[in-house]
Specification:
- This protein is α/β, with parallel strands linked by helices.
- It has two domains: 2-145 and 310-340, Medium-chain alcohol dehydrogenases, catalytic domain (Quinone Oxidoreductase, Chain A, domain 1); 150-287, Medium-chain alcohol dehydrogenases, catalytic domain (Quinone Oxidoreductase, Chain A, domain 1), CATH 3.90.180.10.
- It has helices at 39-46, 95-98, 140-144, 146-160, 177-188, 203-209, 222-229, 247-253, 275-280, 293-305, 321-329; strands at residues 2-8, 11-16, 27-36, 57-58, 62-70, 82-85, 123-127, 131-133, 168-171, 192-197, 213-216, 235-240, 254-262, 284-287, 312-316, 336-340.
- The strands form three sheets. Strands 3, 5, 6, 7, 8, 15 and 16 form a seven-stranded mixed β-sheet that branches. A six-stranded parallel β-sheet has the order 11-10-9-12-13-14, with helices on both faces.
- Strand 1 (2-8) and strand 2 (11-16) form a beta hairpin.
- Helix 4 crosses helix 5, helix 4 packs across helix 10 (293-305) and helix 7 packs parallel to helix 8 (247-253).
- The longest helix is centred in the middle third of the chain and has 15 residues, at 146-160.
- Bound molecules: zinc ion.
Amino acid sequence: MRALQLVSDRETEAVDLPEPDAPAPGEVQLKIRVVALNHLDVWGWRGMAFAKREMPLTIGAEASAEVVALGEGVCDLVPGQLVSIFGARVCGKCHHCRAGRDNLCEHVEGVHGFHLGGFARELVNIPARQCVPVPPGCDDVGAALAPITFGTCEHMLFDNALLKPSESILIQAGGSGIGTAAIQLAKAIGCTVITTVGSDDKIEPAKVLGADHVINYREDRFEGAVRKITKKEGVDVVFEHVGKSTWAGSMLSMKRGGRLVTCGSTSGVSAETNLMMLFQRQLRLIGSFGCRKQNMVDSMDKMARGYVRPIVDTEVEFGDLATALERMESRKVFGKIIMRMA
Ligand SMILES: [Zn+2]
C-alpha cells in the first residue's frame, strides 16, 4: 500500500506500507480518495519545534474517503459510502464532545498528519465517529475540503464571529485556500466582502468568487483602502489568519464594536496589540481552531446546494509534495492544492 511520509524536516518519501488489519470494534476501514494540503502541512514540513510526533509520519490532515469495511458495532455507515474525515482524534466521551463541540475535546490525542499518522495513504483504519457522511451532490473533492478548509471557516464566521447577513467583512488573503472558502461563505449570506490579495492576477478570480472589493496589499495599505470603502467606519468583522504582517492593519480596519476572528499566523505568531484601541473602540478578538463536525455537515450541504464550491489551484501527482508545499509557501496559490489517491 502506497503512503507518503515525512522522514525528516523538509524531506518526504513515497513508501510501501503493509495494509492495515481488519478494523477493530468501533472502527471503519477507509480507502482514501482525495487529500487536500494545508498550511498545517507546511508547518509540519518545516519541522515545528513544539509538535510532539514520531518520524516517519504519514502526512495529510484533510481528506475524503470511501468506506470499505466496518468493525464490530458500527451500524451508521455502509461499505461504498463516501465520507469526509474529521481530522483530530477526539475522545467522543467528554462533555465537550457530547455537546458537539468536538474541537474543544479535553482528551484530544492529536491532529492526523501533524501529531498522528495522516491520510496520504491508500487505506486507513479510523474510529467511525470521525467519519462524516457526504450528501448527494457533493463530490470527493468538496468532501476533502470540508474538515479544514470549509469547516474552519464555517466555525470562524458563524459560531465565533456570529457573522450576520448584510454585515461587512474584511477577509485577509482571499486567494488562500481558506480565503476562497470564506469569501463564498460570507457572500452566500449577503455580506459585503472586502478581501486582500498579493498580486493583480488574483483580483478578477476573487471578484468571481463574490468579493465586492479586492485590495492588492502590495500596492495599497489595505487598512487605508478599507476605511475609504467603508466611509471611515471600518468593517463589522475581520477574518484573520496571516498574523504578524497584517495584525496592526486588521485592528485598524474594524468599526467600533467590531469583531476579529483568527485561526492562523502564517507570517509570524507574535504581534503587537494596541490595548487602548482594543478597549476604547470595544473590539473583540476571537481565537478559533478547527471545527465541529456539524460545521463539516453544513459546509457539504452548502456545496451540494451550489452556494459554495471547492476552488482547486493545482492537483499534484502522488508523491509530489515538495512542489505543492513550495507553491503554498511562495503564496502563488489561488485556492487549494489537492492530491488524488484513488
Ligand atoms: Zn472529548
